[in-house]
Amino acid sequence: MMVFWMIYWSTLIFALGLCFGSFLNVCIWRIPKEKSVAWPPSACPKCGTRIKGYDNIPVLSWLLLRGKCRSCKAPISVGYPLIELLTGLFFLTIWLIYGVSPKTPIYMLAVFGLLLGTFIDLEEMWLPDRVTIGGMILFPLLSMAAPELHGTVGWFAGLKASLIGLAAGFGLFWAIRALGTAALKKEAMGCGDLKLMGMLGALLGWQAVIYITFFSALAGAVIGTGLIVMKKKELSSQIPYGPYIALAAFSWMLGGDRLWNIYLNLVGF
Ligand SMILES: [Zn+2]
Questions:
Q1: Fewest 10 Å CB contacts: which of 12, 105, 141, 198?
Q2: Is pTM beyond 0.85 here?
Q3: Cα–Cα dist 11/17, whole Å
Q4: 25 or 227: which carries more pLDDT confidence?
């Protein structure tokens, strides 16, 4: 019976993730154009035909329509079902790790915001304020409501841990940006990255800020070098840093915090 309920809830949460992924597609498409994400309903960008409810089922509709618009047969990017699938897998993984805990819905919300920020940053080279500033306001409040987020008890301890994390994330990246800008004699990093780090500090605490700082730099070095070697990017070309921060934050939420503690134990902290 336990197994049945586990599969039942996991399926439901995966499906919920797919639906959030579908909404994420709408947000990625519309927020940079400053359009409402609620209205009008989705339409084919080519022929403008409204997408009917039965053609708007995450992943399945794309497969059934073989990636083409029902009316004009214009191709629909495989990016849409992939983003839905990615969101579904993230939601499922968070559920499997944290189960019935306030961390589960809050981390799902954070993953949604991070994916939104990542894809907009990759396309447009900026991070939306409604994600970063929104998170800097929302996560201290949620930390008061759920101090478990920071492994503490009581609203004041939760708020304190969140604000320390926020200050650590924003402050550390402010300093890195100031140093980098002085050294490179050009803007080293966007302001959006500072706000993103503030948001993540407020959610995950100051320990995560240190982890994300190292891990994002490492990921940036490895992936950035890879892209240059594969001649996808010029050495001088700008690669947004937000996606590396998001990648590091995902890995923290999906178990990196435990690995980090094991590492600290190994080196004798
Ligand atoms: Zn069409």
A1: 12
A2: yes
A3: 10
A4: 25
